[in-house]
Amino acid sequence: MRSLGSAARTVTEFLVLWLVSAVALVLTDLILPGVRLHPTPAGGPFDTIPAALFLALVYGLLSVTLWPLLVRAMLWVGPALLFLGVFAGDWLIMVVAVRVVPVATTERVAGVLVLALVMWVVGSGVAGAIAARRDDTYRLMLVRRNRSRLRRRGAAGGAPGAHGLVCLQID
Length: 171
What we know:
mainly alpha
């Protein structure tokens, strides 16, 4: 069961990613010709923000649900093609999101491609920044690296009684 702090952190991370993605969609709408978010009937300077929020939410939900299926389908793909496979998966999710949610139109396939690229870069950057801010990320990396080193040494005839890991954190 998650603690209240962990749940609050997860909700905060979701909101940050959602809002940054919506801002990226609004900026893409302003900069890129051929991609248009539909404005609200009320008009005003921020009339495309609801469409951007809705499209970012649908894109995020589709990514959460479809991404594990795409990853399983790409398991056979070699590492050299993995980059293209990941981007193609993100592009496919964006195509579905634009078709399912009638709040944005694109004149060309290249528009959806650029939109998917923008969302991919923004999502990866925000997720990386969130992961870097967690206190346990660096510790987990050290534990995994040490575990791998101990396994290699154990397989090569290392000391059989050497078990455990001591972590010292100096703040």
